Each structure stands twice: as C-alpha cells, then as structure tokens.
Amino acid sequence: MLRYIAYRSLIALFLVWLVVSLVFLLLHLIPGDPAELLLSQGNIAADPQAVAALREKMGLNAPLWQQYIEHVTGVLTGDLGASFRDRAPVMEQILLRLPRTLEVILAAAFLAALFGVPLGTYAAIRADGKIDAFVSLLSSVALSTPVFVVGSVVILIFAQQLQWLPAGGFVPFSEDPVQHLKLLILPAGAVGLSVWAVITRMTRASVLEVLQRDYVRTARAKGLPRGPILRRHVVRNALIPVLTVLGLEMGTLIGGTVLVEFVFNWPGLSGYLVAAVDARDYPEVVGIVMVISVLFVFLNLLVDVVNALLDPRISLGAS
Q1: What CA–CA distance (Å, rounded) separates 319 from 303?
Q2: CB-based contact 130:161 (threshold 8 Å)
Q3: 3-state per-residue secondary structure call for 66-129
Q4: Which CATH number goes with the domain that contains 230?
Q5: What is the number of domains present in the chain?
Q6: pLDDT per residue over 54-82, tens digit each?
Q7: Are 82 and 89 in contact (CB under 8 A)?
Q8: Domain carrying residue 184
Q9: How would residue 318 be classed by pLDDT, with cut points 50, 70 and 90?
Q10: What is the pTM of this model?
C-alpha cells in the first residue's frame, strides 16, 4: 500500500508541475500587454513611456525563461507574487476566497452522496420498476438543467415565494454562524443537484453490474440475508467507480462555480479567476490555476487511495 501511495504521489507531483508550466507559457502567448491594459482608459491609449516603465516595474521585460525560473522559485517558497492590479499578495487573496468555494463544493458533494447513493442503490434493486423510472427521469432532468437556471428557480421558490432562506450574499461564519449556513444552503443545493444526478446514475449502473457478479450469486445461493449481501458485497464494491466520479466532479467544480457565485453573490475563487483573466493579471491567473490544479490532483490521489483501501487488488495490480 505504501509503495502504491508513493507511486501515485510522484505522478501527482509531475502533473502539477506540468500543468503549472503549460499555463505559465500559454498565458504569455495570449495577445495583449498587461501594462497597457492597466494604464488604458476606455478607448484612450496609454502613454508608451508609462507602459514601458510599468513593464520594467512588473518584470515583464525580463526573458521568458527568467520569469519562469523566478515564478517556480517563488512557488517553491510559497510566494505566488503580487497582483498587477493592486499589488496585493496573490496567496493572501487565494486563501481568503478558496475556503468559500470549497465550502460550497463540499456541502454539495455531501448532499449529492447522501441522497444519490441510497437512491441509486434502491433504483438498481428495483430495476425496470416505477421507482427506477422515476429516479432515472428525475436525474436526467437535473443533469440537463443549467446551474444558473437551477439557481434562479430555487431563489424564486425558497427566497421570494416561501421566504425560508435569503436570496444570496455572504456573511463570515465567525460573525453569524446561523446566517452563514442559511446563505450556504441554496448555492450548495444548486451545485449539488447536477452532482446528485451523476452520482445517482453511476451508483445505479455500478450496483446493477455488481449484482451480476458470481460472488453475489454464490452468497444468495448460500442463503445469506439480503441486507448483509448488499452492505458487505454489493455496495462496497459498487462505491469504487462512484467515488472516482465524485472526486472528478469535485475537482471540476473548484474552478467551475462561476455562475453559482455570480447568481448567489458568493465571493469565491471562481469569480476571482474570471476577473484575473479579464485583466490579464498573470500572477493571479497562474497562482489560482496552480492552486486549483494542486487540489484537483490531490482529490484524485485521495480517491485512488480510498479505492485501494476498498479493493486491495488495485494497489497490488499497480505495484
């Protein structure tokens, strides 16, 4: 097991380095001068001398390889540089917004797994029945509905008509825990609906596959009760692909909650990334993408380890 974890960790480190390097190079290939964009006002062009001075101050006149080495050195020391726009430390801004985005994603994943796994399992047990058809229809609708539509609908129902929850905004947990949780419910539910649909469908397909395995048929032939068979043999083995998909969904959502943060006025990391790309703020973009990449790779590494714990044959096969 330790050998397998070390092997997967080395692959994860290589992937992080590769992604960060590619993003750094691709951003410098995008047309547009950050210094000129910062000094321009509408259609009025910036003063060339001011642009040259700002480029020198930002270090943009240095060779690309030198900028890359300085960037990698800063990353290794925990320094992601300062923003081109306001010279604020990028790491501080990321650490301020990242927990807010992770909070929404973790709450959404928890709700999706809490309702998706039991429903998917029950639908597989009652395959081709009315409940199975209803769950499949509901998950298909949830999967095909855009998140901004879901967000608008839940605001209309729960915030405006029923007035159970606030429509949006953000309050730190330390200031008002109850209000913070109220503000979290709707964005987490809007994000979790599509994840729930994926988890439900994947659980159903995985459970149906495991139910056809020989060891399940043998357990039935021995007269074992239905409950222990489902808990010990079916659900445990069926969770392996479900956890893999859940990890991928969570990794995708780290940088993909832009619309949810916009609809619910939630100041997370995705909106910060969009603003940084629009301003050609290289330190912010590279820093945010690097953090997102590290989290995505870490989530996949965590899923691989959990899958290996559920099924030791995975680690034995990899080693």
Answers
A1: 17
A2: no
A3: HHHHHHHHHHHCCCCCECCCCCCEHHHHHHHHHHHHHHHHHHHHHHHHHHHHHHHHHHHHCCCC
A4: 1.10.3720.10
A5: 1
A6: 777 767 777 878 878 877 787 777 777 77
A7: yes
A8: 94-278
A9: low
A10: 0.77
